[in-house]
Amino acid sequence: MKFGIATFITDQGISPTRLGTALEERAFDSLFIAEHSHIPANRQTPYPGGGELPEIYYRTLDPFIALTAIGVVTERLLLGTGVALIPQRDPIITAKEVASLDLVSGGRVIFGVGVGWNREEMSNHGADPSTRGRLADERLRAMRELWTAEKAEFHGEFVNFDPVFAWPKPVQRPHPPIYVGGGEGAFRRVAQLGDAWLASSVPPQELGPQMERLRALAGRDVPVTVYAVPDDPEQIEEYSRLGVERLLFYVPTMPERETLEYLDRLAAVAARFR
User: Fold this and answer.
1) CA 12 – CA 255 distance, rounded (Å)
2) What are the pLDDT tens digits along the chain (274 aa)?
3) Which of 43, 190, 228, 272 pairs as cysteine with 201 (C-beta 3.0–4.6 A)?
4) 27: Cβ–Cβ under 8 A, 6 or more apart, which residues?
5) Which contacts qualify for 268-273: CB closer than 8 Å, 24 or more apart?
6) Global pTM?
7) Which runs of E-coded beta strand occur in the chain?
């Protein structure tokens, strides 16, 4: 089982480059970073975590710029979005960003995607929250065409373009793996468009039955990465018995010294299972 890190990279915490080198030094295999383009001041959508929305949501760096900086100073670390909010992203521009990052990093991108929860945020991007699932599916299909076809075209309900040339193509073939975030409502998207399921903090006793239902729907053995798991050895052992591919420890956004100390503790836990 592999171990990675999930976090919010902001202007108030450890720098992206120092975080990246610290993770590689401690043998973590991957980094998944969150995305929010902005937070509307008059937001009505409740925060899924309950209570006040943490300030980190207001201050996230652009994920592709941050991951590019990290890719330059690392050699092995996988560079993941956790998650990119597809209803808020132009598919042609996003396809180019993913492919460009995959090229400059030597094929280390994991494209974690989701449909988002903040209705006001996505509305500001011109997306209708009520159709965001269908919109995300079409944009993912369009991006796959842009990555794989010499002359790509797409004609759908939300995305429509005649044949185009779009380069670079990703280093990974046919394209970087798509990790679909969400609960059981996202299983159809995982089955049809994903290479893996990015499960959010699902405890082992619930995850096992969910994995069985996902694999029955998909008709294949879908790899699973679990986001924001506790550093509890007993739970980690349970995840291992389920055949989970990767666990992501969540690291709070902190200054460099505190972050490095936190990573040392997590690395010690992970080392027990390698």
Assistant:
1) 7
2) 999 999 999 999 999 999 999 999 999 999 999 999 999 999 999 999 999 999 999 999 999 999 999 999 999 999 999 999 999 999 999 999 999 999 999 999 999 999 999 999 999 999 999 999 999 999 999 999 999 999 999 999 999 999 999 999 999 999 999 999 999 999 999 999 999 999 999 999 999 999 999 999 999 999 999 999 999 999 999 999 999 999 999 999 999 999 999 999 999 999 999 8
3) 228
4) 267, 270, 271, 274
5) 269/231, 269/233, 269/236, 270/3, 270/27, 270/28, 271/27, 272/233, 273/1, 273/3, 273/233, 273/236, 273/237, 273/240
6) 0.97
7) 2-7, 30-33, 78-81, 84-85, 109-114, 152-155, 160-164, 178-181, 196-200, 224-229, 246-250
Give residue 261's identity as a one-letter amino acid code: E
**Tokens of residue 260, six digits:** 């490095």
